[in-house]
Amino acid sequence: MDPLTANLLDLLFELREHPIPLTIGGGFGLYLKRMRLDQTRERTLFSQLPMPRATNDLDLFLRAEVLCDLESMKAVAAALDRLGYEAVPEAMYMQWKKHFELHGQDREIKVDLLVGPLGQFRERLHVKGVRARPIGPIKLHAHTVEEAIHIDESPAVLTISGNRSNGEPAESQLRVPLPFTYLMMKLFAFRDRKEDEDKNLGRHHALDLYAIVAMQVESEYQESLRLGNLYGKDNHVEAAREIISNDFAGPTSIGVIRLREHPLFRPEFPVSDFLAVLREIFHP
After folding, report:
1. By C-alpha distance, which of 7, 21, 93 is closest to 57?
2. CA distance linking residue 211 with residue 37, whole number of Å
3. How far apart are CA 66 and CA 60, in angstroms?
4. Which residues contact 25 (CB under 8 A, 6 or more apart)?
5. Which stretch of DSSP H or E encloses residue 254?
6. 216 within 8 A of 224, measured Cβ to Cβ
7. For residue 70, with 0-12 CB atoms within 10 Å meaning exposed, 13-18 middle and 19 or more buried, which class applies?
8. What is the number of alpha carbons within 13 Å of residue 238 lying toward its C-beta?
9. Cβ–Cβ contacts within 10 Å for residue 83, how many?
């Protein structure tokens, strides 16, 4: 994960003069949380935690109100350009990539730009399908993730430290979604990928769902229960309930099958407890 850390620190360094809060999701966000737990030794909901899985993506969430600000987004676009990123043709201006050499081999890193529920800011953005961007001339878009409920409210703040790509030590703060928000995103991602051969049949998302549940500390678990009740009538939460009912109902459900198929799955994982916690939070 060192190259990902270095490239993330590079981007945060380039944006140091701009008050642009970023939230890291995806597999790397879970990796950062796991590293913090290893340091703090806090008690987690399950003691059987999976090993962090490899990834080459940085899933960066922009706040909707920041996405509205053309000058802030120009600063992000300029930072990506200075760091040598190029737009990915298949997801033009929402996903960016660059190549680097590691141990004599060519490697690729991707940055996905995302935004949570647009809410009141939708009218101040140019929105087309899953794309949202500021109103004005700019080649930078964010992928809308409407199911990422509560992503901008009280996220966990982590300190990330290490060396930038030039070897200089650096440290910065970054936000990570609360477990409830993470579960929402991963449930939808699993639903969309569970039969997709090109996306490993959703196995990574199934493992991530287990990891999110398992890594909750007591305060996060209680907050997940509260948010499950608070947003219980939201259409996206109702859809999440349906996913759990269809894919994570019991030991023979496709979600459990995909979890057990993952190379990082271990027989001692308390799968029945994992399913029980999903039911407690979402009441399917």
Report:
1. 7
2. 12
3. 13
4. 59, 60, 61, 114, 148, 176, 177, 182, 185
5. helix 254-261
6. yes
7. middle
8. 3
9. 16
Q: Are 280 and 241 in contact (CB under 8 A)?
A: no
Higher per-residue confidence, 284 vs 141: 141
Domain boundaries, the chain: 2-176, 179-282
Q: Which two tokens stand for residue 192?
A: 């969309």
* Helix extents (H) in 83-234: 179-193, 203-214, 218-230
Task: Check residue 10 and give its pLDDT.
Answer: 96
Residue 231: Cβ within 10 Å count:
18
Q: Among 41, 80, 40, which Cα is nearest to 60's?
A: 80
Give the integer Cα–Cα distance in Å for 259 and 30: 16
Total-model pTM: 0.94
Give residue 90's pLDDT: 92
DSSP state of 51: P
Tell me: the pLDDT tens digits for 162-221? 999 999 999 999 999 999 999 999 999 999 999 999 889 999 999 999 999 999 999 999
The strand pairing partners of 101, in sequence order, are 106
In angstroms, the Cα distances linking 274 to 156, 189, 193 are 22, 18, 20
pLDDT higher than 70, residue 1: no
- How far is the C-alpha of 247 from the C-alpha of 142, rounded, in Å? 29
Distance CA 96, CA 100 (A): 14
Q: How far is Cα 71 from Cα 69, in angstroms, rounded to an integer?
A: 6
Give the pLDDT confidence score for residue 154 in this predicted structure: 83
Three-class DSSP category at 131: strand
**156 or 281, which is more confident:** 281
Number of neighbouring beta carbons within 10 Å of residue 137: 7
